[in-house]
Amino acid sequence: MPDAEVLAMLANFILDLYSLGQEVHGVIFIHRITDVRLSGSLIKTAQIIRHITGEKFKGRFALVTSMWDLVEDNEVAYKRESELMRHPKFWKDLGAQFKFSGTEQTARKVARWFLNRTTFLEAPPHLLLYAQLKAGKLLSETDAGTFVMGELSKQRQKHVDAVERLRYEISQARQDRDGETVKIYSQIQAREKASIRQNDVMQRQMQRLALKG
After folding, report:
1. Residue 189 phi, psi (nearest 5)
2. Rounded CA gap, 43 and 183, in Å?
3. Which of 58, 81, 117, 190 lies most in the core, judged by the most C-beta atoms within 10 Å?
4. 20 against 120, higher pLDDT
C-alpha cells in the first residue's frame, strides 16, 4: 500500500481514537531480525512515524526485534540489531529495544516496560499529527503529510523523467522501423503515465483530507 494511503488511513484512525476520548501512550515497532538489511522503505516508515508522533513522544517507543529463534548466526544478528539502534534516521534516540523470541516471557517483558514507566501514569502528549489536524491543518500540511508529499513529488518526477526517456527511445525505434521495440517501450511508457496519474490522485486526496466533524 502506498505511503500516502497508509498515512490517510492512520490519520482517520487517530481522529476516531481521540474522538472516543482515548489516548496513545506508546508505540511498539516490530522488526524481523532475520531481514538481511535495513531497507529504504523501513527507514522511510520510521521517519513517517517520527513525523506522526513528534519530538514530545520520544522515549515512548519500543523496538521489538522478532524471530530470534530462527537466527543461525548470532554475530550477524547482533550486528543487524546494532545497526537498527544506531541509524540516525531509524531508531536512534527514539526509545527502548527488546528481543522477542516467541515466548510469553519476552512478550511480558515488553508489556512490563510500558506499564512500569512513570510517564505512562500521566496524560501522554497528543500525537503531533492529531494536534496539527485539530488546529485545522489539512493532512498535506502536517509534518507527516509534508514529508509524504515530498516523497510523492520525488516519485512523480522519476516517472516523468522515465516517460521523457521512453519518448526519445520510441522515436529512435520508429526511425529504425523497429516495431517490436516501439511496442515494448510504448507499454512501459503507458505504465509510467499510469503511475503519474495515480500519484496525482494520492496527492489530491491528501490535500482534501482534514479533521473529521
Report:
1. -60, -40
2. 37
3. 81
4. 20
